[in-house]
């Protein structure tokens, strides 16, 4: 399970294909989505993922095909990860945001971070997924080495 027990999937938005979940009290959120690479250059997309106004970054890691960032936004913790997927045609992305005082979230953040890496070729056109099944998997260290999230 990528989200904590009791988190509810939110209705789909026809303008933004995303799976979004909210905590029972509405203070925490998890999103998983796919963004086409053609939308912006790779380096610019990584900057967009990493740097958001009003956030204090405590951890930033990445390589040429992935980026992850975590830190604080006021009294909230955020975590985002974006992995180049589908033979370089799309980004598979996740985002968590929750109150800093929330306990037990690290296990879910780590699980989702690993899942987005392992599933980088799921949801791709069949020809891309088949020809790219082993691309870059060994390039990224495990999120269990520390996500900065708590």
Describe this protein's structure.
It is a single chain. The protein has helices at residues 42-50, 106-118, 126-131, and strands spanning 8-9, 18-22, 29-36, 56-63, 66-73, 76-85, 90-99. With 150 residues, the protein is of the alpha+beta class. The protein is globular, with a radius of gyration of 15 Å. The protein has a single domain, classed as Protein Transport Mog1p, Chain A, CATH 3.40.1000. Mean pLDDT is 85; it is low at 129-150. Helices cover 19% and strands 34% of the residues. It has a seven-stranded antiparallel beta sheet with strand order 1-2-3-7-6-5-4, sandwiched between helices. Strand 6 and strand 7 form a beta hairpin.
Q: Determine and state the CATH class.
A: Alpha Beta
- CATH architectural category: 3-Layer(aba) Sandwich
Low-confidence region ranges = 129-150
Q: What structural class do helix, strand and pairing data support?
A: alpha+beta
Across the major sheet, the strand order is 1-2-3-7-6-5-4
Quick check: average pLDDT? 85
CATH topology: Protein Transport Mog1p, Chain A
Shape: globular
C-alpha Rg, in Å? Answer: 15 Å
State the end-to-end CA separation. 17 Å
Question: In terms of quaternary structure, what is this?
Answer: single chain
How many strands, what sense, and barrel or not for the largest sheet? 7 strands, antiparallel
Count of the separate structural domains? 1
Beta fraction: 25-35%
Which series of helices and strands comes N to C?
EEEHEEEEHH
Number of helices: 3
DSSP E strands, number: 7
């Amino acid at each position: 399970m990528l989200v904590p027990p009791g988190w509810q999937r939110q209705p789909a938005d026809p303008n933004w294909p995303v799976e979004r979940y909210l905590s029972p009290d509405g203070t925490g959120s998890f999103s998983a989505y796919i963004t086409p690479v053609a939308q912006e250059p790779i380096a610019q997309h990584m900057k967009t993922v990493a740097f958001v106004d009003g956030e204090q970054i405590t951890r930033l890691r990445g390589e040429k095909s992935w980026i992850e960032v975590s830190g604080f936004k006021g009294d909230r913790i955020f975590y985002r990860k974006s992995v180049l997927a589908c033979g370089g045609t799309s980004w598979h992305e996740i985002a968590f945001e929750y109150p800093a005082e929330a306990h037990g979230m690290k296990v879910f953040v780590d699980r989702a971070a690993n899942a987005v890496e392992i599933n980088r070729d799921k949801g791709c056109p069949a020809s891309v997924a088949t020809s790219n099944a082993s691309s870059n998997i060994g390039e990224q260290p495990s999120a269990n080495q520390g996500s900065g999230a708590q």
